[in-house]
């Protein structure tokens, strides 16, 4: 099972690429990206299938394509909003013709401050992948979270009301804000780690504190959000269920031996190792963390990782060998 905080493409596309690169047969049943669990939100009583959702991040309109493949039918992007109303963030003008014009779609409704009933209403905001235009994306997200009921072009009269919880902020039917990846840093081609989606979220929360600050506030208003991805429990629980289903497809649903142990191999102590170490399985499965030296973590100067794994190994092959030995599997790895 491959569990990644990456994303930006549909699982089928990533599986095809990885199968070719690794020469290993993979399919979507054993591959989970950061935003894969969002597909579950088209089901149930509070289904967002036909609601207007705003998808943020990724290159061009690819994350919108992913959301539509998941089953969401009414998806807008900050690029759509910018092309319809470029005055919303004038600093994106250099990207207008060669970038946003190549994938933006007409809005289902305009932004109409004089008639909120006829204006674009956002029912949920999803950050699927690392945003490419931080300024525009942050501005539009702030506009939505400060609005009345997610109606763009409005500003909630409850904002700043000290008699209300959270000083009135996010008390007026604003949409839920979802993030798919909490990683502050990630291992890119550059020799030093680069800011990830977690960096974008931290910057957005810093702006939220600055915009909502008032000297009379007892405490700063919170930006309510739901964050998934490693190391969060939601993602590990989703992965465990998927892993059990995949195992049952191979061995049969009524196999006498149940899954007892999962080895979590990763290169990021704050996501991979922390997630495995803190996850409490509803099925009594023991998660064992193995940290590789192939990515974010570099054990230089004898420093130990912030979250201690069961073992630190050179690479994935060494991790598999360690796991086989730990499981009393004596057949050597080819």
Q: What would you say this structure looks like, in words?
A:
Keywords: Hydrolase. This protein folds into two domains: 2-227, 3-Layer(aba) Sandwich (Rossmann fold), CATH 3.40.50; 253-326, HAD superfamily/HAD-like (Rossmann fold). It has helices at 11-22, 62-70, 78-84, 134-145, 197-212, 233-251, 269-278, 316-326; strands at residues 2-3, 31-32, 52-56, 74-76, 124-127, 176-179, 185-186, 194-195, 226-227, 261-266, 286-292, 311-313. 29% of the residues lie in helices and 13% in strands. The strands form four sheets. The chain has a five-stranded parallel beta sheet, with helices on both faces. The chain has a three-stranded parallel beta sheet with strand order 10-11-12, with helices on both faces. A two-stranded parallel ribbon has the order 1-2. The mean pLDDT is 95. The chain has eight helices and twelve strands.
């Amino acid at each position: 099972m491959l569990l990644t905080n990456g994303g930006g493409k549909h699982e089928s596309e990533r599986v095809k690429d990885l199968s070719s690169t690794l020469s290993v047969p993979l399919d979507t049943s054993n591959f989970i990206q950061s935003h894969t669990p969002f597909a579950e939100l088209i089901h149930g009583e509070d289904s967002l299938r036909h609601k207007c959702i705003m998808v943020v991040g990724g290159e061009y309109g690819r994350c919108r394509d992913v959301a539509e493949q998941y089953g969401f039918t009414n998806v807008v992007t900050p690029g759509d909003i910018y092309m319809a109303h470029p005055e919303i963030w004038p600093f994106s003008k250099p990207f207008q013709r060669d970038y946003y014009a190549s994938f933006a779609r007409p809005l289902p409704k305009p932004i109409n401050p004089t008639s909120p009933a006829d204006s674009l209403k956002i029912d949920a905001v999803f950050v699927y992948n690392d945003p490419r235009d931080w300024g525009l994306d942050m501005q539009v997200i702030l506009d939505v979270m400060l609005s009345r009921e997610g109606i763009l072009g409005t500003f909630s009269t409850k904002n700043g009301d000290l008699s209300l919880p959270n000083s009135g902020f996010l008390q007026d039917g604003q949409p839920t804000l979802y993030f798919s990846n909490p990683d502050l840093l990630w291992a890119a081609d550059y020799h030093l780690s680069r800011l990830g989606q977690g960096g974008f979220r931290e910057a957005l929360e810093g702006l939220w504190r600055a915009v909502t600050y008032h000297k009379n506030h007892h405490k700063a208003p919170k930006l309510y959000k739901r964050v998934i991805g490693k190391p969060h429990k939601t993602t590990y629980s989703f992965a465990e269920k998927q892993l059990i289903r995949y195992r049952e497809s191979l061995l049969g649903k009524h196999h006498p031996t149940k899954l007892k142990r999962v080895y979590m191999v990763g290169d990021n102590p704050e996501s991979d190792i922390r997630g495995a170490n803190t996850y409490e399985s509803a099925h009594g499965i023991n998660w064992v963390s193995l940290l590789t030296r192939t990515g974010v973590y570099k054990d230089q100067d004898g420093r130990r990782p912030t979250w201690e794994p069961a073992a630190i190994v050179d690479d994935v092959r060494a991790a598999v060998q360690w796991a086989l030995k730990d499981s009393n599997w004596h057949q050597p790895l080819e």
